[in-house]
Amino acid sequence: MDTVTTTVTKETSNQAPQFVIKYASSAVELWYGFISFIETIPGGQIIINYIKASHKNDPWRTLLELLLALLAIRYFLASKYSQDESEKVKLSKREVDELIDDWEPEPIVPAVRQEERWLFDAIPAIEGAITKHVNVVEPKSKEIIYDVLNMAGRDFLDMNTNELVKSSAIKTITECGVGACGPANFYGTQDVHVRASEDLARFLGAEKGIVYGQDFCTATSVLPCFLKRGDIAIVDDGVSLSLQKAVMISRCSIEWFHHNDMDHLESILESLQEELQDGPLNRRFIVTEGLFENFGDSPDLARLVEIKNKYKFRLALDESYSIGTLGPNGRGLPEAYGIPRTEIEMTIGTLANSFGSSGGFCVGCDAMIYHQILSSNAYVFSAYIPPYCASATSAVINLLEASEKPGEINPLVKPLQENIALMSSLFRNSSKLADLVSVRSSDASAVMHIRINPALRKSLDLPEGYGGPGSQIVKAVKNGHETDYFDREYNTECYILQLIIDQLLNSKVLLTRSKRILHHEVLPCVPELIIYLNSGFTKSEIQSSFIAIEDAIYQNLSTLTYKSFDQISDSLEFS
């Protein structure tokens, strides 16, 4: 160090004043002291070697790096909300109060349009238990209409009134309470949950089953477990909203094939073969429904299985509406086609329809179920299905299995299928309704989808469907324009269907209609009257309710013209 100081002194003695030489020598001493300190730190020698090499090549670079390092240290240590006190505006209490009084926050959601206010007067309330006959509180007058035939409930097998099912649920409530008290993977699982999973797997002919707390969230929890970025899903473009959202949030590649069009499905798969062979090995699913929630029809399962085996895809089948209704024993579409459940890699569905309970389920092979236990969001993070719902599900399955007779239709399922056939034949043979409505659902569906006849809709200048790709709704959603989510024609068509429902309520028949939010739907939709059939309905109730339905439809649609449709729209706007 002394040598360095002497050298600096000699070099600068003839060029600078003595005080400059003194400070230069002190700076050099400090610098070498800093270097010595750095060398004592673990890894310090590496830093010293880098600085020496950098300084040798370009001393200005070393200086710049040092300044940048100091700037970075100051940035990360400085307060993020620092503000010069002199720049702060100090307000008096009176000024603060005036600003608060003048502040008008933006609404969280747009205000309800005048044209949509009729929706608030169209929501009936049920007084008492929800069974095949209910007491309805009329929305406008608030008067109670007693003993109304409930064709708006999904208890297809009339299990809500079964004494064995009710006693099983009551027993579980007495022993376990009404809640699972937590997610399944923590402390929410009880013995009744395990039994329900085993009963579902056995009844449907699968290796293993799993149950969920919410039926709508079942698909959105199961499919994202297996579909990730880079995977591919070929999806029927008529699937329910739950399945639409499930494949979207998985972030996989999605291809939509025309509703129940197996030829189009196969053409898509054929066109993907070169890409799939050259690309990485990924997971590939075909996603469809056993009985479509939006249409009430079924795919050709035999052809579907043949296609998925040919192209080595897995099949995910939502049987929310087909279990309990299709097949001799209500085991769904595979039983109706005579196809073993093992051909369907993933079966999901709801417990709230034919099983007279709540929640959802999935059945399949052991590995697929175990993977969900570890990876499914709803199974890991959401509260488990209430124990009494699980025991009710098991009770329904035990009843169905105990009633089976080889070569015969299950006596618990047969009344439902007979009621479906009877109501379908009444609509099909009605000359009064032939030009007014069309039944979109199949003759095997417990849910009848009644639409305004396509020819009549065309005469009213209505579109084939509302929403979907390229529509104004999709453009509004993309641009964030919430006020443009409204569709005038869709609102009016729904209102006309509601007039039919209101008239039928006075005839002691409760119907419902499709209730979809256009900006939530990925695919186009058409408003429908919905009739839910029940095995508990008598033949006379089916026939008398049809007469009331026929009259209500005729009175509201037979005089409907383009001009009157437009007048109804105007009346909703200015009412």
UniProtKB/TrEMBL annotation:
<feature type="domain" description="Aminotransferase class I/classII large">
    <location>
        <begin position="147"/>
        <end position="401"/>
    </location>
</feature>
<dbReference type="Pfam" id="PF00155">
    <property type="entry name" value="Aminotran_1_2"/>
</dbReference>
<keyword id="KW-0808">Transferase</keyword>
<comment type="pathway">
    <text>Lipid metabolism; sphingolipid metabolism.</text>
</comment>
<keyword id="KW-0443">Lipid metabolism</keyword>
<dbReference type="GO" id="GO:0046513">
    <property type="term" value="P:ceramide biosynthetic process"/>
</dbReference>
<dbReference type="InterPro" id="IPR015422">
    <property type="entry name" value="PyrdxlP-dep_Trfase_small"/>
</dbReference>
<dbReference type="InterPro" id="IPR004839">
    <property type="entry name" value="Aminotransferase_I/II_large"/>
</dbReference>
<dbReference type="GO" id="GO:0016020">
    <property type="term" value="C:membrane"/>
</dbReference>
<dbReference type="GO" id="GO:0046512">
    <property type="term" value="P:sphingosine biosynthetic process"/>
</dbReference>
<dbReference type="GO" id="GO:0005783">
    <property type="term" value="C:endoplasmic reticulum"/>
</dbReference>
<dbReference type="GO" id="GO:0004758">
    <property type="term" value="F:serine C-palmitoyltransferase activity"/>
</dbReference>
<dbReference type="InterPro" id="IPR050087">
    <property type="entry name" value="AON_synthase_class-II"/>
</dbReference>
<dbReference type="InterPro" id="IPR015421">
    <property type="entry name" value="PyrdxlP-dep_Trfase_major"/>
</dbReference>
<dbReference type="GO" id="GO:0030170">
    <property type="term" value="F:pyridoxal phosphate binding"/>
</dbReference>
<keyword id="KW-0663">Pyridoxal phosphate</keyword>
<comment type="pathway">
    <text>Sphingolipid metabolism.</text>
</comment>
<comment type="similarity">
    <text>Belongs to the class-II pyridoxal-phosphate-dependent aminotransferase family.</text>
</comment>
<protein>
    <recommendedName>
        <fullName>serine C-palmitoyltransferase</fullName>
        <ecNumber>2.3.1.50</ecNumber>
    </recommendedName>
</protein>
<dbReference type="InterPro" id="IPR015424">
    <property type="entry name" value="PyrdxlP-dep_Trfase"/>
</dbReference>
<keyword id="KW-0746">Sphingolipid metabolism</keyword>
<keyword id="KW-0012">Acyltransferase</keyword>
